[in-house]
Each structure stands twice: as structure tokens, then as C-alpha cells.
Q: What sequence folds into this?
């Protein structure tokens, strides 16, 4: 199957128009539409300062059930990576 990659901006809600395709009337084509989300200030790249202000750094510091948070995070990663991928 031959593929043609075209990027279009939606100009009318719910409509995308394609013109100039190299196909003739009666030929069958398959269209796959992929949404490309636009990054805004909320989802753009963050700085170290943003991370420090987010409240994530130190989130486990008061947990009494977690001794060494670095070791605990390592254990969680290893557990996740060793999980059967078919589940």
C-alpha cells in the first residue's frame, strides 16, 4: 500500500478537505486521521524550578511505611519491569 502523508489544519469544525490527490474516481483509499494536540503553557516543557514548585519533590518524605524513598522507588520500577507484559 502506498502512503501519502498530508498535514492539514481544521478550518471548519468537523471538516477536513483534501484536494489534488493522485487517485481516480472509483479507486478505493483508506484514511487514518490522527489528532496532533497543540502544546499550551500548561503542557509545555517544564523547568527544574517548575518541578520543585509542583509539590512532587518530597511527596514521600512523611510516609512512615516507606523507609528509604530511593530504594522504594527502585523497588517499584523493578516490580513494574518484571511484570508479565501479557497482563
A:
Amino acid at each position: 500500500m502506498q502512503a501519502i502523508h498530508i498535514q492539514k489544519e481544521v478550518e471548519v469544525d468537523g471538516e477536513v478537505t483534501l484536494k489534488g490527490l493522485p487517485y481516480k474516481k472509483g479507486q478505493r483509499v483508506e484514511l487514518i486521521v490522527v489528532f496532533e494536540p497543540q502544546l499550551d503553557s500548561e503542557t509545555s516543557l517544564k523547568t527544574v524550578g517548575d518541578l520543585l514548585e509542583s509539590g512532587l519533590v518530597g511527596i514521600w518524605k512523611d510516609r512512615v511505611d516507606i523507609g528509604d524513598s530511593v530504594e522504594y522507588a527502585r523497588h517499584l520500577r523493578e516490580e513494574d519491569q518484571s511484570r508479565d507484559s501479557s497482563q
The CA atoms of residues 79 and 85 lie 12 Å apart. The chain has a mean pLDDT of 84.
